[in-house]
Design brief:
The complex is a heterodimer of chains A (138) and B (402).
Chain A lengths: L14 H8 L4 E5 L21 E5 L3 E10 L12 E8 L4 E7 L14 E8 L5 E7 L3
Parallel strand pairs in A: 5-7
Antiparallel strand pairs in A: 1-2, 3-4, 3-6, 4-5, 6-7
Chain B lengths: L9 E7 L12 H16 L8 E4 L3 H8 L5 E3 L7 H14 L5 E9 L2 H5 L16 H5 L8 H16 L3 H15 L21 H6 L2 E4 L1 E2 L8 E9 L1 H4 L7 E10 L15 H12 L9 E3 L4 H10 L10 H4 L16 H5 L6 H12 L19 E8 L4 E9 L1
Parallel strand pairs in B: 2-3, 2-4, 9-10
Antiparallel strand pairs in B: 1-7, 1-8, 4-7, 5-6, 8-11, 10-11
Helix pairs in contact in B: 7-11
The chains are: A mainly beta (138), B alpha/beta (402).
């Protein structure tokens, strides 16, 4: 089925991330000076301002930091309401935004902050796959 | 000990456009600006030609040209709804430095009319957002659009961390509505002026349509038209005009993030930092404040901000409303115009905060048009806090009457 929702347009700064996603890997930027992982990708480390950055393949594990249930959306997402959006605390550090899978948007009281999640990728086009996170533990 | 800039300038007047809210025929942002500017000039007796600094959220060169001005100081800071509190901060510094004497801070925004004009007359670019922007690539692709979809995440986290509930925050909407019922210019003034107007209960708030759980419609601000303008002037000018000066005792600004992806603590904003700077400049503290004007884009915004300003302990900001202190007749009035929730919210609401704070401290809050008996509060100090973006940026002012 064709992907009807917004498809990101990879740019030079974020290219490695999207290449990884296409191959089913979660790539994260890490500073080799202070060893901290950051998200989203930067030109300088946001913590120590070093320019010595590398990409690492992450575990793809994280936990729910907070979430909301979207009852109103535009474009292709309008057909999917209600859906759950969440900020994910990455195992490697820092935080990512996503649409959560494996949850019931009509029962938000059952979704637990701190629940373990795992990344998965959905192919949106020939060139782009998009990360989503799925609850793997109640 | 107050800082050097404390009371180096005063707000000497504050006015609105002739028609705000839901105008019968669509208006442009420029019309709203110019009406308010003309009105504040007439209110203070300061001719427009005497303005030597122009401050607005992106409009300054258009405004100056439209008015035939050639200002000595031009500021277009546009970082969301707190921009206008920051403009006051910047104007204070520019006046103290002797660069200008009379600063115009203006806002015009046709949030309501833009729906009828297809976005024309807003002064904003109408093209698509830059697809290479990190927010577009890593956040917008997941279907979030507009403020409620973002701010809802903060409510969930506050509830988790402090054991608060959406019902606790619903009291903010209920109390703010009580203030709107004293302001005939408020959208939600009465059932006669708007089918959704008049008194509401916590149950009404919780039973209204879900926009982005846990935020229901009545946890969210309005979308309206607004024009507002204030004049900030040197002490010499302030003492020469017919209106009362409201002194800028303290000012501060800060930012936590631009994109919510970078919000470290979803239950805190940079208002803690901007308020600390403002209190320091004023040589005052939260205990010296007698009322507050707090940006209420959502109930959660107001609740969190009250905590950041030191007006309530962490996790308990909503109690100011829940126990009635913030209500009409209460000990600590908050958002006496009816707020962004029930009075008017054009998109960037910081100007509405300034206009109401000026009216309260200059004892002009009950003129029958913008306020009925019971709206004027007995306060000589007011803390004003604007919040912009997605709980991103903040500007705090401490204003005091003579």
């Amino acid at each position: 089925m064709a992907y009807t929702k917004p498809i990101p347009e990879p740019d030079p700064v974020h290219r490695v991330f999207w290449e990884g996603a296409k191959a089913g890997k979660l790539m994260l930027p890490r500073c080799t000076t202070c060893n901290r992982v950051h998200w989203y990708p930067r030109l300088l480390c946001p913590f120590c301002h070093s320019r010595e950055l590398e990409w690492i393949e992450a575990s793809g594990e994280g936990r729910i930091h907070t979430f909301a249930v979207q009852h109103r959306a535009f474009g292709g997402w309008a057909d999917e309401v209600p859906f759950v959006t969440a900020y994910i605390d990455l195992k490697e550090g820092d935080r990512m935004f996503t649409v959560l899978r494996g949850v019931d948007p009509t029962k938000p009281e059952r979704i637990r902050i701190g629940a373990k999640v795992r990344v998965e990728f959905e192919q949106a086009s020939d060139e782009v796959s998009i990360p989503f996170w799925r609850v793997v533990e109640e | 000990m107050p800082g050097e800039l404390s009371r180096a300038a005063a707000i000497i007047g504050a006015a609105e456009a002739n028609e705000i809210g839901y105008p019968a025929t669509p208006k442009t942002a420029l019309q709203l600006h110019i009406e308010a500017i003309k009105n504040v000039s007439e209110q203070t007796g300061i001719p427009i030609s005497r303005i030597d600094g122009v401050f607005s959220a992106g409009w300054s060169s258009q405004l100056a040209e439209h008015l035939g001005l050639h200002p000595k100081y031009i500021d277009t800071t546009s970082v969301g709804g707190c921009s206008f509190e920051m403009h006051v901060h910047h104007a204070l510094a520019a006046i103290h430095a002797g660069i200008i004497e009379v600063a115009l801070i203006s806002h015009g925004e046709n949030g309501w009319s833009a729906r009828a004009t297809g976005g024309r007359g807003t002064g904003r670019p109408r093209g698509a957002p830059d697809p290479w922007d990190p927010g577009q690539q890593f956040q917008q692709i997941y279907g979030v659009s507009g403020a409620p979809s973002n701010y809802a995440h903060a409510m969930t986290r506050h509830n988790h961390r402090f054991g608060s509930t959406p019902e606790d925050f619903a009291h903010i909407a209920v109390v703010t509505r009580q203030w709107a019922m004293l302001n005939p210019r408020a959208i939600m003034f009465s059932k006669e002026t708007n089918p959704g107007g008049g008194p509401i209960t916590v149950e009404d708030v919780q039973n209204s349509r879900v926009v982005a759980w846990p935020l229901t419609l009545l946890h969210c601000c309005l979308v309206t038209d607004y024009g507002g303008a204030v004049l900030v002037a040197s002490p010499e000018v302030a003492r020469s005009v017919k209106t009362k000066p409201v002194w800028i005792a303290g000012a501060g600004e800060s930012m936590g993030h631009a994109n919510m992806l970078e919000m470290e603590d979803f239950t805190a904003t940079s208002a803690a930092a901007s308020a600390a700077a403002a209190y320091r400049m004023a040589g005052m503290g939260p205990e010296d404040m007698e009322m507050a004007m707090i940006y209420d884009s959502f109930t959660i915004t107001a609740g969190i901000t009250a905590e950041m300003l030191g007006l309530a302990p962490r996790g308990e900001g909503f109690l100011l409303w829940k126990d009635g202190r913030a209500a009409p007749g209460g000990k600590f009035p908050i958002n006496t115009n009816g707020g962004g929730l029930s009075f008017n919210h054009s998109g960037m609401y910081g100007m509405q905060l300034l206009v109401e704070a000026y009216r309260q401290l200059s004892r002009t809050a009950e003129d029958g048009v913008t306020g009925l008996p019971g709206k004027q509060v007995d306060a000589r100090s007011c803390i004003v806090n604007g919040t912009g973006g997605s709980l991103s940026t903040t500007g705090t002012l401490i204003l005091v009457a003579d």
